[in-house]
Amino acid sequence: MQNRLTDPFELKKYISISESEEKDFDRLEKFFSFGVTPYYLSLIEKENPNCPIRLQVVPRNDELQHAEYEKLDPLAEDENMPVKGLTHRYPDRALWYLSHHCAVFCRFCTRKRKVGSSFETPISEDRENALSYLRSHSEIKEVILSGGDPLSLSDDRLIEIIRSLKNISHINHIRIHTRYPVTLPFRITKEFSEKLKEFFPIFLVTHFNHSRECTDDAKKAIENLVKHGGVIVLNQSVLLKGINDSIDELAKLNYSLVNMGVKPYYLHQCDEVFGSKHFKVSIEKGIELMKQLRGFHSGITIPNYVIDLTGGGGKIPLPTDYLKKTDTLSYEFENFKGKKFNILK
Ligand code: SF4
C-alpha cells in the first residue's frame, strides 16, 4: 500500500501514456482519485492502450462525459442510511461501509462519490452507532461489510468488528466484500485467514473482472482463505465494455475463477454512476452473452446476470426467457440450443 502510485502523471514511467490521455489527468482527479498498487500495475500490458487491466485503472477523458441518466449515488445508498455508514434497504440485510480506502481505485466504481475521501472514513463513534442500530433491528440477518474496501482496515480492527457482529444473536451470517484478492493479493495472509476460521461461516465476495487477474498470487490468496480460514469465496464481476463483454472472455474468466476455488456469483450490469457511459454494455447484449454461457458451460461457472436499479430499486435478475409459452395443460420451454420442449403441468 505504501508503494502505491497515486499520481497519474507517474504512470508514464511504467506504461505508455499518450499526450491526449495525460492532458485531462488534473481535471479527472477532481472527480475521482487515482491509485494503483505496483502488483496490479504489473499486470498491465505496457504498450496496449486497450489492455483490460489498464482500462480499469487508468483515468480516461471519457469519465468527464456525464450522461443525463447517470447519478452521483446511482443506488440511492445515502438515502437509505439510518445511521452514518450503514445502508438498510432490503428487509433482512444491511450494508456497512467500514472504510473508504481501496488498494486500487476502479474507474467504474459505484461509490466514487466517496471512495478515496478521508472525510468519509468512519470513526469509532460511527462504528458504535452502526452496531447499536444492528443490535436493535432483529430483522437483520445478514451484514455485508463493504466500503471502499473493508480489508483496508487492520486485521485486529476487522476481527474486533466481526466478533461484535457475531455476538448479536439475530445475525445469521457475515459477508465481506473486497477487491484485495484481485488488486493486492498479498493482503490475504495465512495468519489473517486463520483468524477468520473462528467465525465460520464467513462469506467473502471478491471482484475479478478479467481472466488475466487470476494470477498465481491471486490463487494463493484464495487458497489461504479457503484452506486456512474455511471461508466461502464468491465472485461478482461487472460487465464492462472492452474488458469482458465477449463470450470467450466471460467463459475464460468464470472457468479461471472456479479453478481457483471461487464460485462466480453475480455478473452485474454496470451501475449508472457519473462518467461510466464508456463502460456500458447494452442489456440485450448481456442477455445474449448469458444465453451463450448457460448450457454450453458447466453450471458451476455460470453467474447470475443482475441489474441494481438506478434510484434504489434494488437488485433484480435479468431474464433469459427459457419459458416460452404456457397454457392450462403445459409449459413450452426452449433449451440452450434453441430446441422447443413441452412439459405437462
Ligand atoms: S475496490 Fe470496489 S469500492 Fe474500491 S474503487 Fe474498486 S470498485 Fe470501488
Task: Report on the architecture of this protein.
The protein is an alpha/beta fold and 345 residues long. The chain has one domain: Alpha-Beta Barrel (TIM Barrel). The chain contains eleven helices and twelve strands. It has helices spanning 19-22, 25-31, 38-42, 54-57, 124-136, 155-166, 180-183, 190-197, 216-229, 247-260, 283-293; strands spanning 86-87, 93-99, 142-147, 173-177, 202-206, 232-239, 263-269, 304-309, 314-317, 323-326, 330-334, 340-344. The strands form two sheets. It has a nine-stranded mixed sheet with strand order 1-2-3-4-5-6-7-8-9. The protein has a three-stranded antiparallel sheet with strand order 10-11-12, with no helix packed on it. Strand 8 and strand 9 form a beta hairpin. The chain is globular and about 65 Å long. Residues 102, 105-106, 109, 111, 115, 147-149, 179 line the site of iron/sulfur cluster.
Give the count of structural domains. 1
CATH class: Alpha Beta
Fourth-tier CATH superfamily name: Aldolase class I
Largest sheet: 9 strands, mixed
Number of helices: 11
Indicate the mean pLDDT: 95
CATH topology: TIM Barrel
Structural class estimated from helices and strands: alpha/beta
Bound molecules: iron/sulfur cluster
Topology order in helix (H) and strand (E) letters: HHHHEEHEHEHHEHEHEHEEEEE
Shape: globular
Amount of helix: 25-40%
Report, as a whole number of angstroms, the end-to-end distance.
59 Å
CATH architecture: Alpha-Beta Barrel
Number of strands: 12
| Order of strands across the main sheet | 1-2-3-4-5-6-7-8-9
How large is the share of residues in beta strands? 15-25%
CA radius of gyration:
21 Å
